[in-house]
Specification:
The chain is α+β, with helices and mostly antiparallel strands and about 350 residues long. The chain contains one helix and 16 strands.
């Protein structure tokens, strides 16, 4: 029994050994196949790597060729860009030069305009100065003519050699009329130049002659005024000085007019005429003489005054107080009857 078991065991071990031996052979073949397979795979991979390397090399060459082409074209483009940039730079330089020229031109124009403005301003100032100087010279000449060379007797002359405190004025008009005023009194007459230095002058008043006859006249000039000397046939001289005459029209305070009294009234017997105005002024005239008056009136009386006594007369300073009556167109003043003109 034991022998049988040992025999079985031996058989079993032999079987296992065979199996092991066969398995080793199989394993060896398998390993060889694997190695061959690996070698084949390695060769294949090597070939693929070589192919890939060749492909990459070719690709690299192509890329180098392309890069070379691109480089050449890039260089060409770069050169073109560089040329364009140079042209642009040149154009920019030209533009800058043009701008600078325009700026210079603008500055030149501004400078020119400024210079022209200064020149014009100077010309205007010179013109104004010339005009002012010309006016001054002209005025000086006119003044010199009228003061030093004007021998005309026309105008107003203040009579110097009178004893009256009231200003006496001789007025010689261009039309040949002459007047002598003393305050509010006026006497009218005529004059005529008969030769180079001789004049006929006639002015008379109710009480006598003021100027009558032929006078030798002499006009002389001072720095500020002219003088007129009238030398009579008896060799008496009346000295007159040029005078700025203005007629005085007094303003009567608190005046109340009478409408029925206004207007002109004349007395044919004595030749007197009254004229009453609505502003309180009146005129009493006869022949070539007149007396300017102011007046106040109420229902029964008229107050009269000569205004050279007071240029703004009032009721309290009236010189004459005359009674009056009105009967239609007849006015009686101080016993004399006047008829409305």
């Amino acid at each position: 029994m034991q022998e049988n078991e040992e025999g079985k065991l031996a058989d079993t071990n032999e079987g296992n050994n065979e199996n092991t031996s066969n398995g080793g052979i199989s394993a060896s073949y398998t390993n060889v196949g694997i190695e061959e397979s690996v070698d084949n795979e390695t060769d294949k991979n090597s070939e693929e790597l070589n192919d890939q390397s060749d492909h990459d090399l070719e690709k690299t060459k192509e890329n180098e060729v392309k890069n070379s082409d691109v480089g050449e074209s890039g260089n060409s483009w770069g050169e073109k860009v560089s040329e364009d940039n140079e042209e642009n730079d040149a154009e920019d330089d030209r533009d800058d030069e043009n701008d600078e020229d325009e700026s210079n031109d603008s500055e030149g124009d501004e400078n020119t305009a400024s210079y022209e403005g200064v020149v014009k301003s100077k010309k205007v100032k010179r013109t104004i100065a010339t005009v002012v100087f010309s006016i001054f010279v002209f005025a000086l000449l006119v003044f010199g003519y009228f003061v030093f060379f004007n021998k005309s007797v026309n105008g107003a002359w203040k009579v110097e050699d009178t004893t009256s405190d009231i200003t006496s004025v001789l007025i010689l008009d261009k039309d040949g009329s002459a007047k002598f005023t003393n305050g509010s009194f006026t006497a009218s007459g005529k004059y005529k130049i008969t030769s180079g230095d001789r004049m006929d002058l006639n002015i008379k008043a109710d009480g006598g002659d003021i100027f009558k006859g032929t006078y030798t006249y002499r006009v002389s000039a001072g720095l500020t005024n002219r003088t007129l000397d009238l030398i009579s046939s008896s060799n008496k001289t009346k000295k007159c000085k040029q005078y700025d005459y203005k007629e005085i029209v007094p303003k009567v305070k608190d005046f109340k007019s009478k409408p029925e009294l206004l207007g002109k009234w004349t007395n044919s017997r004595f030749g007197y005429t009254y004229e009453f105005k609505d502003d309180g002024n009146a005129i009493l005239s006869k022949d070539n003489t007149s007396l300017k008056l102011t007046y106040f009136v109420d229902d029964t009386s008229i107050k009269l005054m000569q205004y050279f006594i007071k240029e703004t007369p009032d009721n309290d300073t009236a010189m004459d107080k005359l009674s009056y009556t009105l009967d239609g167109n007849n006015l009686t003043i101080g016993g004399l009857t006047f008829t409305r003109v």
